[in-house]
Every structure is written in structure tokens, then in C-alpha cells.
């Protein structure tokens, strides 16, 4: 609402008017960090990289415990799905709110490292560039770069927090070489990881017109005029509202909301949640039913195939069981110098004497053939 926003601008101006920049003049971030360590400032706010000089200057457990990070302020209300109103947080609307129903969205990530390769390079140069990129981003080389107090925006990765519980680990020693006190390091790891892995963390505000919303044509220029006393809070609010309305009308409020919600994996309409859930349930049930049907078909088909396979195997064994084949098996054993069962030789001799005609022909009249034929007429 307009009165509340004007009050916020007034409060923001008071804070800036009492900052080190207004009290002692233009101040670098390093000087601001020193003033904070001297306990001349109640609050310091910056990217994580700019906090490293403060962290590396804490040399005792008492100092380490005095400096703790806090998450960004949150709210007890959230924008409704249709974007037309604010709704009180509850377990459904704000599932990741804290015990006081305050909803925070930490890990505002706008930095990072990107590596690109020139496709027109020679193979030798491309290989060298690739090796350099791998070395630069690997934990062995990237960790010493990150631990240095003056290195501001080198992004943290999981490998940079590995084995820090052990003060004698190689990783802890790298931090220690750059002035990190071990207890400070453990506190930093805990605080940083809590924001890094927070389930409510969001992406960068990737919408049309972001530069115009936050840049010289809107927020930035308005705040500068406010701080310089050229406009009061109400005039600044009116300018911001006008600039916001013009930009939003140009890019489309509804489109922007839907695009941002989609980029976060959120539903884009109030009906989308139950519809999506219902759709997932129906698809899941349908899939299970289809798989059950196919499984039954497959089981029946497999059973039939196994039965046929056993029948074929039985027929094959019976067809191959003829006097000539048995004689060949006995001769093969003799050739290999193995002892041949005399009973087997006697039975084979009797079979050969009784057999007339083709010795390779099986005995079609034995009981096994009759049994197989009776049970497998179709086959």
C-alpha cells in the first residue's frame, strides 16, 4: 500500500543517512568491514565474498561466536497464485516457513563462473584451454583461490566444504593458510550451507525488463534522488509506482508472473495444483493398470514359450537317442582314454543287433515317444 511503501522509503533513507558513507564520507567495502570489526557499526551487509576479510580476522573462539550470519528478512504473507492479493502464510502456502510462520527465500544467486571455448582454435590450443578450465574449476586449484580474503565472488561448491570437521585435513589446512580460524570456518560452513540448501531458495529474478526495473530508468535513479534530497519519500514512491506501471504494462504483468512461477517450478494458476495432482494420479493408475495387463500377457506368453521350449528339448533328446549316436559317444570316450561302463557297451551291442536298417533312426515305438506324442498332439 502507498503509505506503507512511503514509510519504508523514509526508513531506508534514515539508514543510509546514518551509514558510514554519510558519517565519514565515501567508504570502501574494506574500510566498512574494519569499522564493523571495531564495533562501530551495528550491521554490515554484502555478498559473501566481501565478508571474507571479516571472517579471516576472527582469531579466537570468542570472536568467532560474536560474528554470526543471519538470513535475509522474510514475510508472513505471500502473493496469491492469481497475483491479485497477499495471503497469510500457513502450512500449505508457505511449507518452508519457520516456526513463527515467517517465509524466507535465501540464496539470491546472481554471480557465478561460466567458461566458453572458441570453436576456431587449433586442437592444441583447445586442449590447453580445456586443461586450464578443468584445473581452475577442480577442488585442488579452486579451493586456494576461494579461501583468499580478497577473492570476492568465486562461487562455493560442495567440495570446498569437504573434511572441514577435521582441523588436520588438507582442506582445513588450505583455509588455515589464509588466516581462517577453525571455529570460524565451522560456523561459516554451517551458515552458508543452511542458505545453500534451503528448500525455499529461489533463482535470480529472470523476467523481462529486469534491468529497466532496477536500473537507471526506475529504482536506481529514484533512490539516488531520494538520498540527495531532491525528492521526498512520497514523491519517490509516486515515481516508482509510475515507472513500475509503465514497464509492467509494456511487458505484461500476467505473462511475467506466469514465466517466473514456471521457472521456479510453481503452479501458474489456482487450479493447476489439484489438476496436476489429479493428472499424476490418473496417469499413475492408468500406467499401473496397463503394466499389470502387459505383465499378465507377458507371463502367459512366457509360460507358453517355456512349455514349447521344454517340448522341443524333449523331442530333440528323443530324436538324438539312436544306436549310431550312442555308439559315437562310446567311441569318443574310448578315444579320450576314459573308462567305459561295460553295461552301457552291452546294452549298445544288443540294440545294434536288434536294429535293422538305418542305425541313425530313433526308436519311434518306445514308451517315451508315445508319451510325448500323446501330451503334445498340436506340436
TrEMBL record:
Transmembrane segments: 273-293
Keyword Transmembrane helix tagged: yes
UniProt KW keywords: Membrane, Transmembrane, Transmembrane helix
Protein name: Uncharacterized protein
Organism for this UniProt entry: Chloropicon roscoffensis
Lineage: Eukaryota, Viridiplantae, Chlorophyta, Chloropicophyceae, Chloropicales
Amino acid at each position: 500500500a502507498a503509505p506503507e511503501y512511503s514509510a519504508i522509503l523514509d526508513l531506508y533513507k534514515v539508514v543510509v543517512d546514518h551509514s558510514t558513507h554519510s558519517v565519514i564520507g565515501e567508504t570502501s567495502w574494506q574500510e566498512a568491514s574494519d569499522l564493523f570489526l571495531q564495533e562501530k557499526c551495528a550491521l554490515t551487509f554484502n555478498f559473501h565474498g566481501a565478508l571474507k576479510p571479516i571472517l579471516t580476522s576472527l582469531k579466537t573462539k570468542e570472536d568467532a561466536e560474536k560474528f554470526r550470519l543471519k538470513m535475509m528478512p522474510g514475510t508472513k504473507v505471500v502473493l496469491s497464485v492469481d497475483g491479485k492479493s497477499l495471503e497469510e502464510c500457513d502450512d500449505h502456502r508457505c511449507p518452508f516457513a519457520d516456526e513463527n510462520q515467517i517465509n524466507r527465500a535465501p540464496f539470491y544467486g546472481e554471480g557465478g563462473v561460466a567458461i566458453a571455448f572458441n570453436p576456431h582454435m587449433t586442437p592444441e590450443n583447445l586442449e590447453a584451454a580445456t586443461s586450464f578450465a578443468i584445473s581452475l574449476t577442480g577442488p585442488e586449484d579452486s579451493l586456494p583461490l576461494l579461501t583468499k580474503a580478497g577473492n570476492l565472488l568465486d562461487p562455493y561448491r560442495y567440495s570446498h566444504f569437504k573434511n572441514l570437521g577435521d582441523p588436520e585435513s588438507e582442506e582445513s589446512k588450505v583455509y588455515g593458510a589464509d588466516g581462517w580460524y577453525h571455529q570460524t570456518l565451522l560456523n561459516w560452513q554451517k551458515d552458508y550451507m543452511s542458505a545453500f540448501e534451503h528448500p525455499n531458495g529461489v533463482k535470480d529474478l529472470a523476467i523481462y525488463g529486469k534491468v529497466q526495473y532496477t536500473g537507471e530508468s526506475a529504482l536506481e535513479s529514484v533512490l539516488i534522488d531520494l538520498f540527495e534530497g531532491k525528492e521526498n519519500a512520497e514523491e519517490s514512491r509516486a515515481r516508482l509506482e509510475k515507472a513500475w506501471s509503465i514497464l509492467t504494462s509494456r511487458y505484461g504483468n500476467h505473462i511475467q508472473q506466469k514465466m517466473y512461477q514456471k521457472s521456479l517450478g510453481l503452479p501458474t494458476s489456482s487450479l493447476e495444483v489439484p489438476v496436476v495432482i489429479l493428472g499424476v494420479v490418473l496417469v499413475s493408475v492408468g500406467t499401473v493398470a496397463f503394466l499389470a495387463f502387459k505383465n499378465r500377457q507377458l507371463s502367459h506368453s512366457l509360460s507358453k514359450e517355456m512349455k514349447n521350449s521344454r517340448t522341443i528339448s524333449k523331442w530333440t533328446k528323443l530324436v538324438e537317442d539312436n544306436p549310431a549316436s550312442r555308439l559315437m559317444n562310446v567311441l569318443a570316450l574310448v578315444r579320450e582314454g576314459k573308462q567305459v561302463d561295460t553295461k552301457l557297451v552291452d546294452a549298445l551291442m544288443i540294440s545294434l543287433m536288434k536294429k535293422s536298417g538305418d542305425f541313425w533312426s530313433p526308436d519311434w515305438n518306445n514308451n517315451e515317444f508315445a508319451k510325448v506324442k500323446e501330451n503334445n498332439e498340436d506340436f
